[in-house]
Amino acid sequence: MRLHPWPLSIAVATVVLAGITAAKAADCPRQDALGTARVLSVDPKIYPRVGLKSFPQTLPLADHEVVLTFDDGPRPPHTQKVLAALAHECVRATFFLVGRSSAESPGLVKRIAAEGHTVAHHTWSHPMSSKISFEHAKKDIDRGIAADEMALRGASTTTPSTPFFRFPYFDSTPATLDFLQSRGIAVFGADLWASDWEDITPEEELKKVTERLEVAKKGIILLHDAQARTAAMMPAFLRYLHHNGYHVVHIVPAVTEKSANTH
């Protein structure tokens, strides 16, 4: 496949597009936008653990389909820049939020949801689960969920409205995995990542993630909206996806009888 070298000079949209509620590119106000190709409902009973870097199974994605996921937010001003880039391309993503950060920036959590993205969970304090006791790990998971829900809905609850979770550093234990599965919460790993936790430039990050995607051809992509380099890279990466035939899939929780009765 011939790659298009999209430069990082493509500007981040300075104004978030208002009223973007449709998932498909055809419904996007900007004709040349990447758009969101389809919505995939994920049932934790069917997909309790996904992401080939950690687990044997991943989401049922076709060739050249990607799921964009962001960890460690919300963190101003980088999260706002990521949201602007996504809005400019009419793309929806999933944000795995750190509860402590959600408590500090509840308005930003609400904005993530209001712009059509999925709010998921990433603990309260970002610990390595294998380095702390099981009881401590459970409390940190639940405190994080409660903080995210408080920021999002104004109610502190350990029952997540979106039962999606990712372990910091992908560092799970058999006990914490079983704990989340027993709660009906899907655990997300990733199929590839941008290595944006490394001390690299936005250009180097773009090169890493696109080269890995050309090998994998599809998958759940891990990024970090808390990183300035990722915020700077996103416009060029989204353009790359568009001009190389990739399609964005937005993941949402499956509607079950239980969840339908709680709304």
Automatic annotation (TrEMBL):
It holds the Pfam family Polysacc_deac_1. InterPro entries: Glyco_hydro/deAcase_b/a-brl, NODB_dom, Polysacc_deacetylase_ArnD. Residues 64-249 form the NodB homology domain. Keywords: Hydrolase, Metal-binding, Signal. Gene3D superfamilies: Glycoside hydrolase/deacetylase (3.20.20.370). Residues 1-25 form the signal peptide. It comes from the Bacteria. Belongs to the polysaccharide deacetylase family. Is involved in generating a small heat-stable compound (Nod), an acylated oligomer of N-acetylglucosamine, that stimulates mitosis in various plant protoplasts. This is Chitooligosaccharide deacetylase. It comes from Bradyrhizobium iriomotense.
